[in-house]
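Repro case for the chain-ordering regression, as requested:
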Amino acid sequence: MIERNLVIVSGKGGVGKSAVSAAIALLAQRAGKKVLVLGMTPGPGLAAHLGIGSLEYEPIEVRPGLHAAAIDRAKALTEYLQAQMGVPQMARFGPLARAFDALASTAPGIREVITMGKVLYEVRQRRWDLVVADAPPTGQIASHLVAPRTVADLVPTGRIKGQAGWMDAILGDPERTGLLLVSLAEELPVNETRETLAWLDEHHVIDVLPPVFNRVLPKLEVTAATVRRLEEGPVRDAAQLHRSLYDGQREWLDELPPGPRLPYLFGVNTPGEVAVRLSDLLETP
Amino acid sequence: MTRALLVTGGGGVGKTTLAAGLAVTAARRGIEALVVTVDPARRLADALGQVKLGSEPVRHPDEPRLWAAMLDATASWRAIVERHATPEAAARLLESEFFTAATGHFPASQSYAAAEEMAVYLEAKVWDLVVVDTPPSAGGIEFFTAPAQMADLIGGRLLRWLTGARLPGRQVFFDLAARPALRIADSILGSNLLERVAQFLMDLRTTYDGVSRRAKEIERLLRRSSTVVVTTSDPSPMREAVRFFLELPEVAGRPAAVVFNRALPVGWADSHPGRGVPTALAENLERWGAEARHQADVRLEFSSRYRAPLATVPWQPTAPTDLDALQALIESAEGLPVTDLGVG
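-- result from build under test --
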């Protein structure tokens, strides 16, 4: 996974996307790679898992060799227009940005292509060995992955159309790019992951890595009879709850293609600790 | 009068199940109750007697006072456009290449559609209680800001700037030559995209009077509603719960309760396995005890900082998938002010 140049991390809301993104970035950093981890959605989740308060558009070095940033759409647009469209610096960006803002809330793909464009641009610049993208949830991932094509279809002429080519080339190259889906062993996340996998299977826009199950409970090595014989109290109650939840998870673990399983972290206090623990676990599966 | 109860919170915390549980409990206490869900698990939808996605409420076959409906944002938007746009504009909007993207992509559009549906159910005066499971975006905060955002977007400066229109309904003149910024944007985009978008927005503009009047009514309804915020002690839903106290506009008032779902018994935190207990079981208690302690710490910190009324719902060994289990879930809650919430 960390041998690629771009890993895009998605999953249903609440499954731990940001924690897994941070963990992969930490893992690559420890392997001596120059890493950028990019938050594609607003919100402080990724920053918290990296142990800092907030992220900026300009990458900051959170550990030696590990940089982190958050995508701000207005800034990404300015950078995009200057660096890639050759709009001169002196052009009035205020009015131009407002025109794009009107488009972003109306025309399909514009909002997504600006965000995806920033991620892919960082990969294209080859400043990093690995870019990890903490992506929008699975419900929105398809529209992001096809955004370059959506925009190209929307505008058969015009300079923006020419951008789809290089973006699709990076996204579609299995040597360079992979999509990692994170799930929990529960009905809704598994179903959403399955639907996303089916869509990806049909559309071939990106190479798909084996999906990760997060918060998997360990097996309790005692028989049901032993538990039943216990006296009433916390030992028995905790064992019974554990066994039921464990059985509930078993139902869903075989419903996705095999992949890494990350354990439930009991009593871990800070988001920063969670990411460090997960990165250790990814190293020694 | 119909009461509204909004169940909000971050993704994956069990909002939908708790909303269903509250409606079932109310119905069994003689209250005519409707639960509006967004994306229920199949088994939960089955338990509620929901056969298919639809905004038309369906009465439960075995529980005569329990009704359920599911939100379909695109269908709601179609109804909003038909209700508020001029007939010619409505026809063009529904046919437009931008319609699905715009109604699905406006940051607040799913939340607005849900709020609008809620208003329709409240005004129908059929139910005593309408329980709304809010859409997951931004932990439900958007639900409260959506009406104003929508009115602002449709009537807003953006469109006026883009089209040069000053008054609704007046013929506008889309003049690229006079607008250097538009000319640059047009050359980048090509294919008259800006003009096509401007036409779409002008058509959408015809809904402005209707939507802004409606938005005010919805805000009034929201102000009279009760809200519960559902969370677990995990950092991500906790951040969403905190936002309710830091960012929520006056329109929502203070939540009636913050419900910590999947709570473990506090007693597990300091209990010792005792002698003769197999190692695996002692270790198991230690793990869950650490989790119970962590949960208690999180709740204590939250309540002392935000002075919020707390409730806890015990961690269920299996997800409730029938009406009895849904009612039992609510009855097992501690600190939940069911009477204040209109649940009986």
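Ordering looks correct now. The longest helix of chain A spans residues 234-253.
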